[in-house]
Amino acid sequence: QTTGLKRLAVAENPHERLRILYTKILGVLENIPKEAAYRKYTEQIVNERFDLVKKETDVQKLQDKLNSGQIEEVIVQAENELSLARKMIQWKPWEPLVEEPPSDQWRWPI
Amino acid sequence: TVRPKNEVEQKQLCAFGEYVAEILPKYIQQVQVTCYNELELLIHPDGIIPVLTFLRDHTNAQFKSLADLTAVDVPSRQYRFEIVYNLLSLRFNSRIRVKTYTDELTPIDSAVSVHKAANWYEREVWDMYGVFFANHPDLRRILTDYGFEGHPFRKDFPLSGYVEV
């Protein structure tokens, strides 16, 4: 039993782990204002994946339905998304533009 | 012969560019797709780390690989250096370019905390152009000689240099 990838151990009980991670992400997203596009799209992605995880109990079929590599990779991706959501709360990227560039900055050819 | 236009890929890149611009309006100043199907995001320099972490961690944009980090010198502009990051997504097999600007004295946040690969690339940009990276673990010369003065890739540095060899 091996993932075939280096430094990624086989995950026992991946459904439980994914359930915990997705509930944590949704909890973190509650702290972002509702109109932010990041919250909308991330909630959409997380809810889709969460529904698939809840419905499908077989690991192999779940991997095929998610179509995103091995289950362990899906777990890693969910952990990344969680850390990103926590950082987004500090950075607040949904606010309007910080500063306009000088008018000739992005003109090409000069 | 003329390179055939791939309309489907163009549309997908445009859609993805609009998606990213909608999520990060605070830092993205412009989004463009070249005719050769290359997506470019033009960023304010404060937003490098947020944008790079977003592109690395978000599920719809897993750009885990930093392929290149360079700078372009355009002396006629107010912010003469343009820092360019090329990212590659292995999951979705697509590339993206992130561009920022700075002048000679303003430091830029180091991308090492996001992509370890940026270490030597930033040392090279410091050595060749003189762009200082804040929070870099070890910023020193990498390609020029030990006592070398000046930044060779700048447009006002002469071709045969200042010192006779």
Can you give me a brief rundown of this structure?
The complex is a heterodimer of chains A (110) and B (165). Chain A is built from four helices and no strands.
Give a description of the structure:
- The complex is a heterodimer of chains A (110) and B (165).
- Chain A has 4 helices and no strands.
- Chain A is an all-alpha fold and 110 residues long.
- Chain A has a domain of 76 residues.
- In chain A, helix 1 runs parallel beside helix 4.
- Chain A is elongated and about 60 Å long.
- Chain A starts with 13 loop residues before the first helix and ends in a 19-residue tail after the last helix.
- In chain A, 17% of the residues are buried.
- In chain B, the strands form 2 sheets. Chain B has a 5-stranded mixed β-sheet.
- With 165 residues, chain B is of the alpha/beta class.
- Helix content of chain B is 24%, strand content 25%.
- The mean pLDDT of chain B is 93.
- Chains A and B meet through helix 2 and helix 4 of A and helix 1, strand 1 and helix 2 of B.
List keywords for this structure.
heterodimer; A: 110 residues; mainly alpha; 4 helices; 0% strand; B: 165 residues; alpha/beta; Beta Polymerase, domain 2; globular
* CATH homology group of chain B: NADH:ubiquinone oxidoreductase Nqo5 subunit
The count of helical stretches of chain A stands at 4
Taken as a percent bin, the fraction of beta residues of chain A is under 5%
Number of H- or I-type helical stretches of chain B = 3
At CATH level 3, the topology of chain B is: Beta Polymerase, domain 2
Number of β-strand runs of chain B: 7
- Output the helix-strand order of chain B: HEEHEEEEHE
| CATH architecture level-2 label of chain B | 2-Layer Sandwich
Structural class of the helix and strand makeup of chain A?
mainly alpha
Task: Report the C-alpha radius of gyration of chain B, rounded.
Answer: 17 Å
Strand order of the largest sheet of chain B: 1-2-5-4-3
Q: Could you give a short account of the major beta sheet of chain A?
A: none
Strand % of chain B is 25-35%
Helix content of chain A: 55-70%
Counting helices, strands and paired strands, the structural category of chain B is alpha/beta
Q: Write down the Rg of chain A.
A: 18 Å
Q: How many strand segments of chain A?
A: 0
Q: What sort of overall outline of chain A do the alpha carbons produce when their principal axes are compared?
A: elongated
Question: How many domain units of chain B?
Answer: 1
Largest interface by residue count? A-B, 30 and 30 residues
Keywords (chain A): Electron transport, Membrane, Mitochondrion, Mitochondrion inner membrane, Respiratory chain, Transport
Organism (chain A): Peucedramus taeniatus (Olive warbler)
Membrane topology (chain A): Peripheral membrane protein
Pfam families (chain A): ETC_C1_NDUFA5
